[in-house]
Amino acid sequence: MKILEDGIKLLDPFSTEAKNGNQVWHLKYWNEPTQEWLIVTKTISKGKHTKKCPAEVYNYLEKRVREKIYKYSEFKTNVSVSEAFKEWLSKRKLEVESGLISEGTHKGDVIYTKDFLSEFGHWNLKSIKTIHLKKYFDEFVVFKGLSRERKPSVNSLRNIRSKILLFFEYCWLEKSYISTSPMSELRIKKHKKTQSEYDKLKDKCFFSEQMEVLLNHMKEFEKTQNAKQEDCVRKRLFIEFTYLNGNRYGEGAGLKFSTVNHGGIWIKDQYSRKSSVKNPINKQTKTVTSRRIKAFENDDTRSKEIIQWFLDHNNSGINDDYIFVRKNGHLLSDDTMNRYLHRFENQMPDKLSSSFVMHSLRHSYITRRAEAGDTETEIMAKVGHANPNLVHTLYTHVRDTLKFDEQKKFKKQPKLLKIGKSA
């Protein structure tokens, strides 16, 4: 008896001779639903008899078995990696449209698998074994997902492995192209962080005293800017608000006056970077768990003051409902904000250059709330994080589902009114 990769049981083929002299080859297979042996046949013309079943005949019989078992004749037995990958990407695209995954996640599906496809795209899907993937990852030397080849970072390799794992699970569990995933038993050489990597991880946040120093440097810089002074104030206030609330850049940039009040902020969507800062469009949040109500901390009156300042000073008539905009009404872009932060790195030489980005402010919030005694569950809910595995790396939190009554409480909070207050 022979057992195929997908679990199909076959007996050895045998032949009989028909009354007209043709040779008939038979192949018995086990039908699980009826718990019996069934048979498929292939007739060979008279004069072409063979003692051993020809390979082309056996392949035909095996294909007929699969058609019988899987109930459809188009069952793919020789799918290439590139063919299956196109199907997987189409499925992931549908998940973007239905809101299951973000556009950024789907973009990563493409970027992080380019090198894998160039290496294995022409392979038959079933021919890829764990040993091939292990050799591939152990000897990975360049990352071809970018225009300029370079060695992949540890995080890039982790993302690459994650995407390839999802692809093979799709082929295995959803399409039954393979009997098991070759990634299931894969063991990768453990990466030991270098001292510089530890330093970078530890440094990528601003502690309270560091944030105070940074904001003071910004205030001093504003005094020298004359006509640009107000836009510099706006950047500083956006930075301070992000530090106080831990939102992602896109979530903060997409905030509107209609989604904030004295109770906190309601993050329903985020700014789409595919749109322009002049004519911004919001899109769905990064994940479903990113949709949340973020209440202001009990000791945080500053966030309300910042929103109030923008409410009083946004008078351009452009993008009126958006909060964090320039004097001319255009949104403050991610690049603009990161460049502005980098402007002050020389004045804080004890911090790494990589820390002067907007996302560090999100890390800062998480660290600050952990120090204040918030539980991991509370922090996870506040930042809308969906991946609990990061608790053991950078983040110190796990996810908690927001309750519907939080939305009710949010709606009961009083609206903000123009009162006029300086920054």
UniProtKB/TrEMBL annotation:
<dbReference type="InterPro" id="IPR011010">
    <property type="entry name" value="DNA_brk_join_enz"/>
</dbReference>
<dbReference type="Pfam" id="PF00589">
    <property type="entry name" value="Phage_integrase"/>
</dbReference>
<keyword id="KW-0238">DNA-binding</keyword>
<protein>
    <submittedName>
        <fullName>Integrase</fullName>
    </submittedName>
</protein>
<dbReference type="InterPro" id="IPR002104">
    <property type="entry name" value="Integrase_catalytic"/>
</dbReference>
<dbReference type="InterPro" id="IPR050090">
    <property type="entry name" value="Tyrosine_recombinase_XerCD"/>
</dbReference>
<keyword id="KW-0233">DNA recombination</keyword>
<dbReference type="GO" id="GO:0003677">
    <property type="term" value="F:DNA binding"/>
</dbReference>
<dbReference type="InterPro" id="IPR013762">
    <property type="entry name" value="Integrase-like_cat_sf"/>
</dbReference>
<dbReference type="InterPro" id="IPR010998">
    <property type="entry name" value="Integrase_recombinase_N"/>
</dbReference>
<dbReference type="GO" id="GO:0006310">
    <property type="term" value="P:DNA recombination"/>
</dbReference>
<feature type="domain" description="Tyr recombinase">
    <location>
        <begin position="201"/>
        <end position="409"/>
    </location>
</feature>
<dbReference type="GO" id="GO:0015074">
    <property type="term" value="P:DNA integration"/>
</dbReference>
